[in-house]
Amino acid sequence: RGLGPELGKAGMLEKFCRAMLLNTRSVKLDLKGCVISDDGCRALATFLLSNRNCNLEWIDLAENSIHRRGAKALFSGVEKCKSLRYLDLRSNYLSERGLKSVKKMEQRLRRQDPP
User: Fold this and answer.
1) Model confidence pLDDT, tens digit, residues 84-115
2) DSSP letters along 39-105, please?
């Protein structure tokens, strides 16, 4: 989280995601309170979709500026990331409908947990 709000600036999260493509060891991504927007979610989804060696298990996107469109884009990437077990989207700008989608995604992630 050392970059904090810097990641919310235009293009910064995309650059960060490109750098993450080289990193197959990270299992935790803490972007809580980094002013991530819907565009940032799309960049993160692209990263998840294009990184077959992704080992992320935990992504914290709480307290950002994510709306329904960003969450929807993110879910497309989350569905392809088989290692992911936890996604936090608390305290964003999601409608009741968006929150229902988050709950469904959380249930899917829990079903992937080994017994």
Assistant:
1) 888 999 999 998 887 877 787 777 777 665 54
2) HHHHHHHHHHHH-TT----EEE--SS---HHHHHHHHHHHHH-TT--EEE--SS---HHHHHHHHHH
